[in-house]
Amino acid sequence: MLRMTTVSFLKATSFSWYQIPLMKKPINVIPLYNPRRFFCSDSNAIESTPSKQKQGNLKPGLYLVATPIGNLEDITLRALRVLKSADVILAEDTRHSGKLLQHYNIETPLLSYHKFNEAQREQSILKRLTEDEIVALISDAGTPGISDPGSQLAKLCVEANISVIPVPGPCAFVAALTASGLSTNEFSFVGFLPKNASAKRERLMVSASEAATQIFYVPPHKLSQFLEESSDLFGEFRRCVMAREITKMHEEFWRGTLGDAKSAFSDRQPKGEITFLIEGKPISEAETPSETQLENELGALISNGHSLSTAVKLVAAGSSMKKKIIYSLALRKFGKQDDGLNDVES
User: Fold this and answer.
1) How many CB atoms lie within 10 A of CB 85?
2) Shortest CA distance to 133 belongs to which of 124, 146, 142?
3) What is the dihedral sign for C-alpha 49, 53, 55, 58?
4) Which of 168, 194, 211 is the last residue in one of the domains?
5) CATH code at 76?
6) Which of 65, 102, 148, 196 could form a disulfide with 167, with the two C-beta atoms 3.0–4.6 Å apart?
7) Residue 13 burial class via C-beta count within 10 angstroms: exposed 0-12, middle 13-18, buried 19 and up
8) Distances from the Cα of 158 to the Cαs of 89, 116, 140, in angstroms?
9) Euclidean distance between CA atoms 36 and 55, whole angstroms
10) pLDDT at residue 346 above 80?
11) pLDDT tens across 56-95, in order?
12) What are φ and ψ of residue 45, in 5° steps?
């Protein structure tokens, strides 16, 4: 018996649905078209693949999708299309990201992916990617891989010759920089400082000597400590900007010097996400540090466990003085140690 297709049936009928007269008794209507199966006029039926239908014209691969850092309207049309088309969405906090997806009626499955489980998830995700799936990676806010999980997975995909596709959008430090009023010609994004005290001081010393604008992510409960340490190395007259809760209801930009910031936040702890920017070292600033200053810096680094050679290199990186002069001072004040000082001489 020849099976009539939906299209053939519609062509054979001469009426439209709105022309059917109203009936006193309800009738059961059996749908002739099943969206999950296409009927053919012969015995072969072509089963549709839901995931391939969903993917549309996106190529398989890992999509790094930037999401709003506060205001839900700060999401691109492309980001929404990718999130709707993906086979799975990797998210730091599925409950947090679920609110974003619910807001935009996105029903793509979520899979947790954060710093505590990324190593365990990597191989299973790579397997899905090698099977030509579309995997979207999002963070709680902003661009994945920027002080958030994602960079290691992207590296593994590149090594495995799997496509990594960025879907650009919101990024807290870029937003803060553009509105800061500080130089945007050159900048260094430091992010969160190391927790180790000596490593943190080393990083701040390097930043203090750079001419580029320095950008940090600072937890609100550590702001006072950060200002104390940075003003000691950058100097209290260096201009700075605190950008807080960017794009959110309580967005705040505070501008002044590091000295002013110490006073302003000595008895006030701001809430929320903080991006802190410090202007670069003026190029015209070429002060020659005194021998006492150099000795104090060398001594502080050595007392924190650094070798003499490492201390010399770090002090030289933050000074306009030649490395050989600092090396000579180190020998006089702290004596020669067999720890690689020969490398400093060269």
Assistant:
1) 19
2) 124
3) positive
4) 168
5) 3.40.1010.10
6) 65
7) exposed
8) 19, 22, 24
9) 15
10) no
11) 689 999 999 999 999 999 999 999 999 999 999 999 999 9
12) -110, 135
Per-residue model confidence (pLDDT) at position 286:
55
Residues 241, 253 contacting (CB under 8 angstroms)? yes
* Pairing of the two strands 274-278 and 239-244: antiparallel
Q: What tokens appear for 198 in the block?
A: 């000596």
User: What is the Cα–Cα distance from 123 to 256, expressed in whole angstroms?
Assistant: 48
302 in helix, strand or coil?
helix
How does pLDDT run across 183-219, given as a tens digit for each residue?
A: 999 999 999 999 999 999 999 999 999 999 999 999 9
Please indicate, yes or no, if residue 2 is contained in any of the structural domains: no
Q: What is the CATH number of the domain that holds 206?
A: 3.30.950.10
The residue segments making up the domain with residue 297 are 291-345
Domains in the chain, number? 3
Closest-CA residue to 234 (of 206, 255, 215, 256): 206
The pLDDT-based confidence of 20 (bands split at 50, 70, 90) is very low
Maximum Cα–Cα distance for the chain, whole Å?
Answer: 108
DSSP state, residue 17 = G
pLDDT tier for residue 39 given thresholds of 50, 70 and 90:
very low
